[in-house]
Amino acid sequence: MKREDVVVPKGMEASYQRLHFAPAVRDGDRLFCSGQTGTDAKGEPADPEAQITRAFENVKAVLAEAGCDFEDVVEMTTFHLGFGKHIGPFMAVKDRYLAEPYPAWTAIGVSELAFGALVEIKVVARIPR
């Protein structure tokens, strides 16, 4: 991997430097995005809908930095704390960002996520030519 393959949107530089992970990496015509949470800059969780919306907005920022948008997403993996309790709000927010044709999606219930997050969203996108 080369440095120019790494995608770091404005505002995510500190995480790249401090936590040593790329928000996304280009590999040929694919963009592999790290999981994004919806906690705020201080690591504070918000109410479920606000946190889910912020997570999708973070994914949107990563996609945009690489010249992509949600229409380019081919696969999505989501991790959920309190899966049954928050899946309804998650579905409502998800439908504001993703439209037909829908990407492949795997949802996983977990016992804990980083920074007190309720959800983490990871995507793979096709980079437009």
Q: How would you portray this structure in words?
A:
There is one protein chain. The protein has 129 residues and is of the alpha+beta class. The protein has helices spanning 13-19, 48-65, 83-97; strands at residues 6-7, 24-27, 30-33, 36-37, 73-81, 104-110, 119-126. Strands 1, 2, 3, 4, 5, 6 and 7 form a 7-stranded mixed beta sheet that branches.
Describe the secondary structure blueprint for this structure.
Layout: E1 6-7, H1 13-19, E2 24-27, E3 30-33, E4 36-37, H2 48-65, E5 73-81, H3 83-97, E6 104-110, E7 119-126
Parallel strand pairs: 5-6
Antiparallel strand pairs: 1-2, 2-3, 3-7, 4-7, 5-7
State the gist of this model.
The chain is of the alpha+beta class.
Secondary-structure arrangement, i.e. CATH architecture: 2-Layer Sandwich
Provide the CATH superfamily. Answer: RutC-like
Question: In angstroms, what is the radius of gyration?
Answer: 14 Å
SSE arrangement, N to C? EHEEEHEHEE
Give the helix level as a range of percent: 25-40%
Hey, roughly how much beta strand do the residues contain?
A: 25-35%
Number of helices: 3
Uncertain residue segments: none
Cα shape: globular
**Tell me about the biggest sheet?**
7 strands, mixed
CATH topology: 60s Ribosomal Protein L30, Chain: A
Number of domains: 1
| Count of strand segments | 7
Backbone structural class: alpha+beta
Distance between the termini: 20 Å
Text of the CATH class: Alpha Beta
Average pLDDT rating: 93
Attribute tags:
alpha+beta, 3 helices, single chain, globular, 129 residues, 60s Ribosomal Protein L30, Chain: A
